[in-house]
Design brief:
homodimer, mainly alpha, six-stranded mixed sheet, elongated
Chain lengths: 587, 587
């Protein structure tokens, strides 16, 4: 059982049959056709030679097929991770240098090791640090950065930079040197790809393809663009006219062997590698979960860390770049009928054959066409409505998102993701530190207690009931002290305070000490502290402490009971009654 | 009003009368007698000349009297802050050098500026990051470090070090060179001080003092020890026999003027200064709150930041060291009848006169006696029962405490406090990320719903009800998806899932997206998602999103209602009913 959990292939492999094989091979064929141009494009985006993208789409897929738990996730280079790789490698070496390639390999290795370590230590919950608004903001901002970074290839001019101001400063003056043949190729590719997203499927159906076949074939738009562009370059001799092309791609096997350990380089790349691991994991798991749920399958996030970690180590060992599960290609894999991770392994074989036999043909592929595929791909994943939607729902979440977007655009991907995580964490801590609390009174003629500010309710000068709508933890323990003591200081006639705990799911040791301090401080001022509607698990825990022994007042089963009893004791002189609570608690 | 909030003296100063003046002067006299030896001792602990302690007990008290909100807090050098100062200053300069003193002044200035900035920006909630178990563990471990660091003065040997292993490694071999006259003075001081804590008050009462006067006079134990030790040194010529004494203290005014800006030094001291500010603030506020509550007064934590910040800047400008509110001396101030912060100002005058006229007399004070006062003071603040008490209450809180104690002892005060904060934060995030959730069923014959694992309840194969005992936030949004999808994957006959939200106090944007994803994924699998017992404020917010429009199921006012309705729909074929919810929500 344990072995099967660590090697999911043992589970699905036992039931593998000819029908599954047929489905997986068809899906692999479709994904291969889609993945070849994507691999080349994301290598370009990462500032790496085109073959690195192909290499990153072979061994990693095989390893994920062994260790991953998603049946349909398609692993390989993706846009956001390629951008993060470019930024990190660019911070330690010049693009195009051997050191730059070395840095990309080191990033794949380190992020793979980090993912493996997180998987072994069951630290998958760390991915929670990336909230939805932060991830959404980060992908939007990265998409803008990626699209902007590709404009220079589209216009055939020089450029560069890691942030939007840097990119625009480099790009705008250079536009006067626009290379017109390159721009024509680029715009033609762009227009074709945009049209292909909507127009290819109906056309293929009209040409007689069945709707499902037409839908799958339409995913080959980028491949058609690549073929058409190569044909145009070859036919018109555009490379001789200065249109940048991919150039010779070495045919054959990827280079084998892990990068040499380099403590200095690894130290400088550790943080970027961690961020790449985290972003890649979050993206991949959300895609995998979406697809698994459609077939009532499950993925195991901690095992996914192992699968993605192994895939990245494999990328590092075979001359690749950091990889993760890609959204678009996984959906295609799923739609094309992939039934097991074997589809990924067959895709790896397909890319391997492409690297072996197609590489020479790709030499004439214009860079502008690849840039066009990148731009179309990233603009499709930007959710333009998200900021407004989140703004309407929650100002705090919007603040975290806005900070992520602005910092990513203005300072780059790493500061952006760090700022987003820090902002969500601070906002969360702030929310936990200042929870909602209401002074409540009794709704006349009922046993209900409501906020005195919203309802006409019965209260007494000698009795204060506070309902706290949050667990009591160290983050808000001090707030509770301040809130209660401020309310008490404003009520000279007070002699009973009731803390209504119906929404308190937990009380940690700090909050317990605060409650003890509140109890003593109130007692010093001649006021009794009571609790009402304490939940069973919370009561179980309180009974392990001395708090209940020292409590100046009582624990009431219901707020109604507390109100009736204490309303009748305006001087606080009645002796405290024995605790009615049994050993098990109420709930 | 605003001016009065920023300058609390304007509030209490208007009502100041002769009776208050008399009370404050008496309290100031008692505190001065207690503070003189404490100031000298904590300067020694910080590795600074004795007069620095006195200087830190003059101007800071005046500034706190202007800006602080506690009527009875007594500000000055305290043990834990002195130890942190020694560690931080020792990391940039050698003890006894001019640079070391400069570093101490810079620490006072920086922590003062940090406190002021936190006050202006209303960042007092950051102090919540220090949970009670972390503070308690830190004070225990610091107390052990402080007591150990003073043993060398007690034995009259060389020593040093920032961590327990370093201190013991330096101290133990040196014990063979113990200076017997020093040890005799030290032990005599120690025994007297230990006795004085319990025995001085009854003795004074027997000598005819009124109980309250005896209690206050008994606080003069350290002053008596100092006088006795000076007399012994002078009478027996102990300084000539090698007993280390404080030596000449320059009489007169403290040096005036802020330290020169030194970006390099300040950069290296920024983190320690922040930690000093945080620890000092937390300690001070908890003392101030305890005392204020006894008289039904209030303190304003954000204004306390201003008061303590101004006090520290004043310390830096007058040759002092970092200061904060001290526990023992504030209690004495309170017990002695201090009514307003003017008592602090009068104490400053007292210390000023002591620095002016007593300084020459203190030259013969043995260092071993000061060490004895430090040891007795810090051992009194260690709460030896706290670890066991917290262990019984909560393993997680105990883990945070144990990490703080171990790291402080083994790696020093700064790593200790950082490790404690990080550990509590991670444990809190982990707790938030993996909340308690229960699958519930109906208790036969009632409208109550309980955990299926604990109770005999009614359930149906086509209906799953999950109660989540935590607010839904980005930290547990992914957990919720995984939990629900795993439960769904295990139930082939399922067609209704009800999320019972009675303990959900909030749903943030990430959790909302997860709920939307869950809704869609369940719908893909032919399962309807329903909510029950949603709280009013949560419902208000959900109505600002599209979630309710897309929800495949219904929102039920009560779980009982949901159970009755859905139990009667075993195929999930009944059309969704209109939402019965009004615009205001239930609660």
């Amino acid at each position: 059982m344990r072995l099967a959990a660590a090697l999911p292939i043992l589970e699905w492999g036992r039931h593998y049959d000819r029908k599954m094989l047929a489905s997986d091979v068809v899906a692999a064929l479709v994904v291969t056709i889609m993945l070849v141009p994507q691999s080349l494009a994301y290598a370009l985006l990462a500032g790496l030679p085109a073959e690195v993208g192909l290499y990153a789409s072979i061994a990693p897929l095989l390893l994920y097929a062994l260790f991953g738990t998603s049946r349909t996730l398609a692993v390989g280079p993706v846009a956001v991770i390629a951008l993060m790789t470019a930024t990190a490698a660019g911070s330690v070496a010049a693009e195009g240098s051997a050191e730059y390639l070395e840095a990309a390999l080191a990033l794949a290795l380190l992020s793979g090791l980090i993912l493996l370590a997180m998987g072994v230590l069951r630290l998958g919950f760390l991915a929670n640090l990336l909230s939805h608004p932060v991830i959404s903001g980060f992908i939007t901002a990265s998409g803008i950065l990626i699209a902007t970074s590709q404009l220079r290839h589209l216009f055939g001019v020089a450029g560069g930079g890691d942030t939007l101001p840097e990119m625009l400063t480099a790009l705008l003056p250079a536009l006067s040197q626009t290379h017109v043949p390159t721009l024509v190729v680029g715009l033609a590719s762009l227009l074709f790809l945009v049209w292909a997203r909507q127009g290819l499927k109906p056309l293929l159906e009209r040409l007689g393809l069945a709707p499902r076949a037409a839908e799958l074939a339409a995913r080959g738009g980028p491949a058609l663009a690549v073929i058409g562009a190569i044909a145009a370059v070859a036919g018109l001799g555009l490379d001789a006219k200065g249109v940048a092309v991919v150039g010779t791609i070495p045919a054959g096997l990827p280079p084998l062997g892990l990068p040499e350990p380099d403590p200095d380089l690894w130290g400088r790349l550790a943080v970027p590698a961690f961020l790449i691991a985290l972003v890649g994991f979050v993206e991949s798991v959300s895609v995998a979960q979406t697809l698994a749920a459609r077939r009532r399958q499950r993925i195991v996030p901690d095992q996914e860390l192992i699968g993605l970690g192994a895939a990245n180590v494999a990328a590092a060992a075979t001359g690749g770049m950091p990889v993760t599960g890609g959204f678009a290609r996984s959906v295609v894999n799923f739609d094309a009928g992939a039934e097991t991770p074997a589809a990924g392994a067959f895709t790896a074989v397909g890319i391997f054959l492409a690297a072996l036999f197609l590489a020479p043909l790709l030499a004439l592929l214009p860079v502008a066409t690849l840039s066009a595929t990148i731009i179309v791909a990233v603009l499709a994943i930007i959710d333009v409505n998200a900021p407004l939607r989140i703004f309407r729902y929650s100002r705090r979440d919007f603040a975290a998102m806005a900070i992520t977007i602005l910092v990513t655009l203005l300072a780059g991907v790493e500061p952006g993701i760090v700022a987003g995580v820090a902002a969500s964490l601070l906002l969360h801590l702030w929310r936990s530190a200042t929870p909602h609390a209401a002074i409540v009174g009794r709704v006349p003629g009922t046993e209900h207690f409501r906020n005195v500010q919203r309802h006409e309710v019965i209260t007494f000068p000698h009795l204060l009931t506070v309902r706290v709508d949050e667990s009591l933890t160290y983050l808000n323990a001090r707030w509770l002290e301040e809130f209660l003591l401020a309310e008490v200081a404003a009520r000279p006639a007070l002699c009973h305070v009731v803390l209504m705990c119906s929404a308190v799911n937990a009380i940690d040791a700090s909050a317990l000490e605060s409650l003890e301090a509140i109890n003593h401080r109130l007692a010093d001022a001649g006021i009794r502290l009571h609790l009402s509607e304490v939940k069973g698990p919370v009561m179980d825990r309180l009974q392990k402490s001395h708090f209940l022994d020292d409590l100046s007042g009582r624990v009431f089963l219901s707020q109604h009971d507390a109100f009736l009893t204490l309303a009748a004791d305006p001087d606080g002189m009645a002796p405290p009654l024995p605790d009615p609570w049994g050993p098990r608690g109420l709930i």
